[in-house]
């Protein structure tokens, strides 16, 4: 199976010596929804800019079989992108935004965009200055959904939006956009809201990929144990990679441990992606 994204030794160093991406290797298969999760400054946006040909990089990188730096025009015919800082001119009317995308993108389906907008409060006669931030996001989503793209890249797409709009955004992606031929790469700080959507997750810290795994393999690889004080030393003897306190009890996190042993010491479960991310960041900081 040909990868949608293939990175080998991907590296980016800015002036002054700051290394934003530190020689990472990863691949993304078709039809997957991949969460790229990391703290501010961890390297997420630099990875995305590299994928889109927006910044030079070192190493080997192909997206849809193309080099983002030398074949960007061809690449962007099959890629859509929503950024956290995506803006439109305040004077622009919605219908003119559709006119523009229709004129520059050969795979844009205007009818589909108008059908989507008809389900929202965004009118074709509205100017951008009349739209709330949530409505602007809906306009961006309408433009993206109407483009027949093989890869959708979302960089904090719902930042600053209320819960209802965020949920509607992701529901629309799943129900009206995603299929087995399309791939989504998303970064977000609201991990809890999207973890049930993801097929794969990558954690990035200080420019390095510290975890890259299919979501359905997390339960077989990681365990979370809630223990009482009297069992704590025995649980620690089994070498957890992270721990934290919750309401007077301790939660310990294990990788590739014997679940039968752990089950005797407390309440055993599988960590959520959000909890696993926090535990990994504590491990990296130790």
Characterise the protein shown here.
- The chain is α/β, with parallel strands linked by helices and 286 residues long.
- It folds into two domains: 5-206, P-loop containing nucleotide triphosphate hydrolases (Rossmann fold), CATH 3.40.50.300; 217-285, 2-Layer Sandwich (Alpha-Beta Plaits).
- It is 31% helix and 28% strand.
- The protein contains eleven helices and 13 strands.
- The strands form three sheets. A six-stranded mixed beta sheet has the order 5-6-7-3-8-9, sandwiched between helices. A four-stranded antiparallel beta sheet has the order 11-12-10-13.
- The longest helix is centred in the middle third of the chain and has 15 residues, at 163-177.
- The protein is globular.
- The mean pLDDT is 89.
- Rg (C-alpha, Å): 21 Å
Q: What kind of sheet is the major sheet?
A: 6 strands, mixed
Classification by helices and strands: alpha/beta
What's the assembly state of these chains? single chain
Give a nutshell description of this structure.
This protein has helices at 44-51, 72-75, 94-104, 110-117, 133-145, 163-177, 191-194, 218-221, 232-236, 259-263, 273-285, and strands spanning 5-13, 19-28, 33-37, 58-63, 79-83, 151-155, 183-187, 200-205, 208-214, 222-227, 242-246, 249-255, 266-269.
List the helices and strands and how they pair.
Blueprint: E1 5-13, E2 19-28, E3 33-37, H1 44-51, E4 58-63, H2 72-75, E5 79-83, H3 94-104, H4 110-117, H5 133-145, E6 151-155, H6 163-177, E7 183-187, H7 191-194, E8 200-205, E9 208-214, H8 218-221, E10 222-227, H9 232-236, E11 242-246, E12 249-255, H10 259-263, E13 266-269, H11 273-285
Parallel strand pairs: 3-7, 3-8, 5-6, 6-7
Antiparallel strand pairs: 1-2, 1-4, 8-9, 10-12, 10-13, 11-12
